[in-house]
Amino acid sequence: MKFLKTIRVEELKQILDEIPRITLEEETIDLDLAFGRVISKNVVSAIDVPHFRKSRMDGYAVVAEDTFTADENNIISLELIETIQAGDKPEKEIKKGQCSYVATGAAIPEGANGVVMVEFTEKHDKTIDISQAITPDTYIVKVGHDVAKGGTIVPKKSMITLPTIGILASCGIEQVKVYKKPSVSLISTGNELVPLDVESLEMGKIYDVNSHILKKAIENAGCEVNFFGIIKDDLESLKNAFNKALSSGDIIILSGGTSKGEGDLGPQILESHEGLEIFIHGVRIKPGKPLIFAKINSKNIFILPGYPTSALSCYYVFIENFLRRMSGLPPKEKDSKEFELAERIYSTVGRHQFKPIKIKEIDGVKKIAPIQTGSEAISTLFYADGYIEIDELESIIEKGETRTVYFF
Amino acid sequence: MKFLKTIRVEELKQILDEIPRITLEEETIDLDLAFGRVISKNVVSAIDVPHFRKSRMDGYAVVAEDTFTADENNIISLELIETIQAGDKPEKEIKKGQCSYVATGAAIPEGANGVVMVEFTEKHDKTIDISQAITPDTYIVKVGHDVAKGGTIVPKKSMITLPTIGILASCGIEQVKVYKKPSVSLISTGNELVPLDVESLEMGKIYDVNSHILKKAIENAGCEVNFFGIIKDDLESLKNAFNKALSSGDIIILSGGTSKGEGDLGPQILESHEGLEIFIHGVRIKPGKPLIFAKINSKNIFILPGYPTSALSCYYVFIENFLRRMSGLPPKEKDSKEFELAERIYSTVGRHQFKPIKIKEIDGVKKIAPIQTGSEAISTLFYADGYIEIDELESIIEKGETRTVYFF
User: Which residues on adjacent β-strands are paired with residue B76?
Assistant: First the structure.
């Protein structure tokens, strides 16, 4: 065991930031399923986009030189030889004295080197009058203007957004190579926990909340979740479940079992493994002091407090961006804004507190109000709009002081 | 046809805001699939949470009156009659002079009305020494403290977040009633468009991009998408596809077909329907002028420009929050920040422009830089960080001026 101590919030964040990314395998998936995934290999286009010269406007494709002397007082008349709509293949080459109609997006016929907008023309039976001079290349989108054949269009490690889907589709790319999602093994422990399908609760029992909120939270961070069930608080059952979880997952998240009155099961289970490094056991925060972060060889292990509000707070503050980094996703920047306190808030000295708060409008001004329930109540987070940070050394924040609210 | 005109951006936004929400049916789904969905019926808890009195601390459940005289100089000794861990059912009632060990979260035995923290006790063989006085209710979480039986816990029209999943799970609720997703029929039109599975492109043809980006964008706004394929630009084919789309969807989105050189197919298709109201035909914006919004009875119809950059810009500015409102989701607030222009940007007078821009760091300062390609290139959006709005009456914004960037 390397070290074992209660540390400050910033120290834990730094330790987590320095953990190297796990090595993820690749998989090939359909473009339509790729939103939010991370490209594992530079994508190169096999084609130019567009792969033909294209008109930017509705107009007439001409030999630009034919128009050089044209203006309102010197109309030039050209022979109309073809009408080319978007999607049509031009059949005829333009020679001096000739033109073809081209719609926006239509292919430019051979021989033409410019387009006169329809607004500066007049159509007769078989001829077109031109009243504007154009320079070569006017209103022509060149081959490869958007994407050049052979060039890297989307570099490795990019997250796929809507415009990424757009540019890949424009190159005719139907499938993409992406990183597999990190696999997270999730365990809920506690003799008091029962699954939702149990109809009536006995005295002392409560429904398991953490597996439901953590499962979705972990998926939202780009990971795949395997749930190993609700495990009893006894060393044998927990060891068995933990060993299975360890062999199948890159990351193991266990909620509960950190701070039991009669013995700390989490650390006992970890201790039996070779290659164990416990980086943190306890962080000076509230809610959620009994957080453990450890590694067994390349596997990352988090043991979270059992109370759902504590577990989810720890998840938001420490684990969410750790998982996003492992998945290859950009960190989530917390939306934040400053507000005044509507009333005094108390905190425990020696604990860096993430206090869930509400925003309350008082005489038309939005202010920070505390929530009366604590980490024992899941409704605390339900009614919270966000949280404020309270430093280890503060015991009171006075009414009227200004704090940054981080929104959920 | 009611009216048909080119309008200003703000007018269109207002028209869209005033369209009544479509009536959505309900469906019952598993809690684990409910994240991001919208509750269709007030959820009432059938149980109190907790449904038993619970200890907030590791300690001893006592009759508070027994401790009233206790302090460091006056140790009180109580008989230990039971050890109650979280999840255990207490077997014995506490009488005066007795106590039971209770772990955090464990049920409080009958007869007890307070908990003395373990820190203020000393354990002997069968007795516990107490060195602190407590008042009644100390460290006891009352029945229904978190959720009261019979009360509405999650009101109708709430979007399901992680804390909502938590509070529902804590009440043992496995399934929830939610609104069905609005159904959007999507059509891509254009003779030039081919699907991604076509291996090699003929002259004049391009891959269909809009169906891929719009499909995912619409799903992200909480809707279900039925794609009706890539339809040729002829009145008969388009009429057939449109009629199918109209009968199966609440909202119909058609991209392309708004501004063809040789005739505007979109309006022609709409015109053959009874109950048609065209609210907008053309908005004074760039990119994406040829936008149509119409209704046929209760169905909402958008016809978007064919260029992917124009289609997606129109979607972001007008349609995204319209669809979110129809789904029951809160509007997406665009992340925005002010920056200085790194160089002069030109615009077309008479068009309200949403100009995709990049953020470029120049001498350590982040500034707004234009993107050289236009709406004909999908790479424009791919390289953009966001957009700025340029008013109808502006033709130039000078280097050094400050603008709000709306991030994608």
Answer: B130
